[in-house]
Design a protein that fits this description.
The structure holds two protein chains of two kinds. By secondary structure, chain A is an alpha+beta fold. Chain A has four helices and eight strands. Helices cover 26% and strands 34% of the residues of chain A. Chain B is globular. Classes of the chains: A alpha+beta, B mainly alpha. At the A-B interface, α1 and β2 of A face α7, α8, α10, α15 and α18 of B.
């Protein structure tokens, strides 16, 4: 075997083959990692429309019984918008199975009676990961309004995300 | 039905902004495509949507994005055919073992580093619907890709296509792209098979059979094109239409087989005859409309999906910085080390590493697939787009700094016949470092 060929083989083993072995090790070890639970997707919101309408900023939501929450998730962070409700976007954080998000009503929505411009709708919910599709149970409340109370809601994920790829 | 007025207005705005920003970037010595990528970001929620949400909502309402996406995808299908057409596997053979080593290291180094980074990023930027294996493999594929067309353009603009640096870079980029797309195809199959009742071996078997038919059957038939071109000096409209039909049929086959439209168009380009004049002729026919009209739509569509606002807070910017660092160290460092070990002077090796670090449009294509199949999250997509922009933007100035034109045009680097041989240095070679 010529020197050039021998050197090529040594260099190839060191720089290509060994790293590939390392890659296999990483892929094996990575399987033990856990990522935040998935909440990405569309969620069908179910809440008592009468109680929702009694909540400041909730009247607009209560008018549409088919309101869906669209959640776009990036790790623990997510953005939330109302897919067929008034235009608004909220950002939130996922802590274990608990979702917390604050939604600032858009200008047109804030004009609703009792919904001031500075008010925020707060959403706190727990994800039930045992159900298929996953479901959410939580409370909607309005910031800076201790007397307003809160409204319980339930949401079911419309398009459950299947496992993407092999473990 | 689309609102035609809105759609045409959208296209006009996109073209105007892309041409304008592209021209500005040309003036500062960057390839136009970098400016067009940047223009896409400007039109998205990261700038226009943030500064003028009303105008953004009027120009790019959510309902119109489907049509914009469809048009842009047609552009990318044709573009991937042109990328495949430009790839010539014979280039790699000219440089022997050294080019094989450099190209393979330029894939494995960023790939493995990206997999290590995935151990850190997966629990932070992904969720439990994505398997770690898919996440890590995707990150590896995305970081090991090289923008073959941008690289070719940079080399052409600097008159380096005939230099040793240029030919090795083109050969390595071709190998990188083919390998990167194969890995990506595997990931897409893995992910789609999770939703598909068809067993994975049936899908893989179908893909292998399709590739064999293309390489050993269709490829031979395509040589008729060259024969006709040689005889007539041109191809008739019917033959050009047939070529487009073949591209679309190949794209449809790979989509039907469960990978992606783009693999089929890329493969069709890759198996086309590689006679230089013929390739130039085809490129001339397709490039103008694709590059000036359809690709800017793709940049805009990508920009509309990129929300730099999602990269908020110190922690997220650290992740973004790590992604850029790992991508650059893996690709630039890996290519540089391998080419230096192959006997290239250190300065030229650094130049090669810089060129290989160009990701450009190819990266955006891959990232869009990743976002579509949801293997990466929107925030990670935005970070990776920033990485693609950064690594592409840095190529020209860093290359000029490391390998000024006057040095590259000097003797040894201009001799393509000079054989590179893999050498294992016992100690760091002072002569190479000073080169």
């Amino acid at each position: 075997m010529s020197n050039a060929n021998r050197n090529f083989i040594i260099a190839y083993i060191l720089l290509v083959a060994l790293p590939i072995v390392g890659l296999l090790g990483v892929l094996k070890n990575g399987r033990t990692l856990t990522a935040p639970i998935s909440v990405d997707g569309m969620w069908q919101l179910q809440a008592d429309p009468t109680r929702l309408a009694s909540l400041p900023c909730g009247k607009t939501l209560g008018q549409n019984p088919e309101t869906a929450l669209a959640i776009s998730q990036s790790g623990r962070n997510f953005t939330l918008s109302l897919a067929n409700g008034p235009k608004s976007t909220a950002s939130g954080v996922l802590d274990g199975t608990t979702l917390k998000a604050s939604l600032v009503p858009a200008a047109a929505w804030s004009e609703e009676t009792g919904c001031g411009a500075s008010r925020e709708l707060t959403l706190v919910a727990t994800v039930d990961i045992k159900t298929d599709p996953r479901s959410l149970t939580g409370m909607l409340s309005v910031s800076d309004c201790p007397s307003c109370g809160s409204v319980e809601f339930h949401a079911v994920r419309l398009a459950p995300a299947a496992k993407k790829g092999l473990r | 039905m689309p609102d035609l007025f809105k759609l045409v207005l959208e296209i006009a705005v996109i073209l105007a902004v892309c041409r304008g920003v592209g021209s500005i970037f040309r003036k500062i010595g960057q390839p136009r495509v970098v400016g067009e990528m940047f223009a896409g970001i400007l039109l998205g929620p990261s700038l226009l949507g943030w500064m003028a949400p009303g105008i953004s909502a009027y120009l790019f309402p959510a309902g119109s994005l489907g049509f914009l996406n469809a048009l842009s995808q047609i552009g990318v299908v044709v573009f991937m055919f042109l990328v495949g057409l430009g790839i010539n596997p014979k280039e790699l053979k000219k440089h022997g073992h050294a080019a094989v080593l450099t190209s393979h290291v330029s894939i494995t180094a960023p790939f493995v580093l990206a997999a290590f980074l995935s151990l850190y990023l997966y629990p932070k930027l992904s969720d439990d619907s994505v398997a770690f294996t898919s996440f890590a493999l995707f990150m590896g594929a995305a970081m090991s890709i090289t923008a073959f067309p941008v690289l070719a353009r940079i080399l052409a603009e600097r008159d380096l296509l005939g230099s040793r640096l240029g030919t090795v870079a083109i050969a390595c980029a071709a190998v990188d792209d083919v390998t990167g797309w194969c890995i990506l195809a595997y990931i897409v199959v893995l992910i789609r098979s999770a939703h598909n009742p068809t067993p994975i071996w049936v899908t893989v078997g179908g893909i292998v059979a399709f590739a064999l038919v293309m390489i050993y059957g269709v490829r031979r038939m395509l040589h008729r094109y060259v024969t006709i071109y040689r005889e007539r000096g041109q191809l008739s409209e019917n033959l050009m239409a047939l070529m487009l039909l073949l591209v679309l049929a190949s794209a449809l086959c790979t989509e039907w087989l469960g990978i992606h439209l783009l693999f089929g168009s890329f493969l069709m380009g890759a198996i086309m005859p590689k006679e230089q004049k013929f390739v130039r002729y085809i490129l001339d026919r397709f490039e103008t409309v694709t590059v000036t009209l359809l690709l800017p739509l793709f940049f805009a569509f990508t920009g509309l999906r990129t929300n730099i606002g999602l990269v908020k807070g110190q922690e997220m910017w650290i992740y973004c910085g790590l992604i850029i660092l790992v991508a650059t160290v893996g690709k630039l460092g890996g290519s540089m080390l391998a080419s230096w070990l192959s006997g290239m002077p250190v300065r030229e090796a650094a130049g090669l590493g810089t060129l290989m670090n160009t990701r450009g449009l190819m990266e955006l294509v891959i990232l869009n697939i990743g976002l579509d199949i949801k293997v990466i999250s929107p925030a990670l997509f935005s970070m990776m787009v920033l990485m693609a922009l950064f690594t592409t933007f840095m190529t020209t100035p860093v290359l000029e700094m490391i390998c000024p034109d006057r040095l590259l045009r000097e003797g040894p680097a201009r001799v393509p016949e000079q054989e590179l041989a893999v050498r294992i240095p016992a100690t760091p070679c002072a002569d190479r470092i000073s080169a």
